[in-house]
Design a protein that fits this description.
The radius of gyration is 21 Å and the shape is globular. Strand 13 and strand 14 form a beta hairpin. The chain is α+β, with helices and mostly antiparallel strands. Bound molecules: adenosine monophosphate and glycine (GLY).
């Protein structure tokens, strides 16, 4: 089969790496990909949000299955466009993708179907939003309705901070139309966990739990990032808690979507806060998590491509239980100097060859590019350069969390580029 993966981050490298292992995969493309992905798949220079370009390519190449990494093409309706040409594509359609593209839609669905979540109110008027903030006081959480590249949530410690967030979202329109509405919600306390399932609206298959580390510095300090590291499974999600999350969050949500006439096929990712009153849903994403995928897929023994095909055909009932490697997986993100603010680019990355020889370690590229050097002489060499904020996801397996942490950090220490920074405490909460 010919497969096309859309996206260019660490998540997509992990997807490409896993799909390439499938017996069903004969030819693998990635659009636009990165330097690590280019070692396994043929990268095509089409942007992830260029729906007509991707559609043309899939038609011309007769792609058997397209797998969508990021949320933007899903929210733009890539699945609906591909369906018009009977092209198979893994991911939810435009209507279903509102679970991530509109926080108002997803919160209202949660309220209607009694999915536990923070108390909230929706506003389309900034003055009314600010009045409400004064009434409930701080801390509180302000969320832009639409997609904001992970930056649309402000956990405000003071009333003033919350009001300023409303102003920048609704009046200064820092996220454009994504800020036409805001949600003001109760601030929850607890540890977070990511629960990802694959569903075809009839069946639900849960993936292993994971715990992301969103803050840039150790001990969860500093500004939020796209995710600085992750481990899977998350021992805080006990078997009992996992069942409770499936029952109260996942099944109720998917039942609700079905009742609303929405045909959801793909990954549904629930961000959960484990509060003292039980698990509560922070948000839904309609795609694989990044970096969760980098720590989940190395443990998955089953054929992911088979599962994805079954999902698109609404035949997930044919897939039996998933098989998992019992080892623990840790992924540490190596970020560029300055990230998550303005960051440096074009720094040469050293140590990748050494790490490639290490056992139980794999490096997923995110913001990287390559160039050929010494092409005048006989021997050509590839040089890797940084090109994004999150540069690499260094991933290691171990029998225990301690062993996985040691294996991963041993590899991280081999890698260097100017300005590189990473968290030193990934997995510490689980060990
Ligand atoms: P979201 O994009 O909704 O997951 O929000 C991003 C991050 O903001 C989450 O991972 C949490 O750390 C935090 N957050 C979101 N909603 C709340 C809430 N109601 N209470 C506390 N923290 C929250
Ligand atoms: N790990 C957070 C996300 O994928 O949105």
């Amino acid at each position: 089969m010919k497969i096309l993966v859309i996206g260019s981050g660490g998540r997509e490298h992990a997807l490409v790496w896993k799909i390439a292992q499938s017996k069903l995969c004969d030819k693998l493309f990635c659009a636009p990909g990165n330097a690590g992905i280019a070692q396994i798949a043929e990268c095509v220079n089409i942007k992830a949000d260029d729906i007509p370009g991707l559609l043309d390519f899939a038609r011309k190449e007769k792609i058997d299955l397209t797998v969508v990494g990021p949320e933007v093409p899903l929210s733009l309706g890539i699945v609906d466009e591909f369906a018009k040409y009977k092209l198979k594509i893994f991911g939810p359609n435009k209507s279903a993708a509102r679970m991530e593209a509109s926080k108002v839609f997803s919160k209202e669905l949660m309220a209607k179907y009694k999915v536990p979540t923070a108390e909230f109110k929706v506003f389309d008027n900034p003055d009314a939003a600010k009045k409400y903030i004064e009434k409930i006081g701080s801390p509180c959480v302000v969320k832009a309705d639409g997609l904001a590249a992970g930056k649309g949530v402000v956990v405000a410690k003071t009333v003033d901070e919350a009001k300023k967030a409303v102003e920048s979202i609704m009046q200064d329109k820092v996220f454009g139309a994504a800020g036409n509405k805001v949600i003001i919600e109760e601030c929850l306390q607890g540890q977070e966990a990511s629960i990802l399932v694959i569903t075809d609206s009839k069946e639900v298959i849960a993936l292993a739990s994971a715990q992301d580390h969103k803050r840039v510095f150790d001990n969860d300090q500093g500004p939020n990032t796209g995710g600085m590291g992750v481990y899977s499974p998350a021992p805080i999600v006990t078997e009992e808690l996992f069942k409770e999350i499936l029952d109260k969050v996942i099944y109720r949500t998917i039942d609700g979507l079905v009742k609303e006439g929405i045909d959801y096929r793909g990954v549904l990712y629930a961000g959960i806060m484990l509060t003292k009153d039980g698990p509560k849903t922070l948000e839904f994403n309609v795609r694989f998590g990044d970096p969760e995928t980098q720590a989940i897929l190395p443990r998955l023994k089953s054929d992911l491509l088979e599962i994805m095909l079954a999902t698109t055909e609404q035949k997930l009932n044919r897939v039996r239980n998933l098989e998992w490697d019992s080892r623990v997986c840790v992924c540490v993100v190596a970020a560029a100097g300055g990230y998550p603010g303005n960051y440096e680019k074009n720094k040469e990355i050293f140590g990748l060859d050494e790490v490639a020889k290490m056992k139980d370690v794999v490096v997923f590229h995110a913001g990287t590019k390559s160039r050929i050097v010494n092409d005048v002489g006989q021997k050509q060499e590839t040089e890797y350069l940084t090109s994004g904020g999150r540069v690499l996801g260094v991933t290691g397996l171990g029998k225990t969390i301690k062993e996985a942490i040691n294996n991963t950090y041993a590899a991280v220490k081999e890698i260097s580029f100017e300005g590189m920074h990473y968290r030193k405490d990934i997995g510490a909460k689980a060990s």
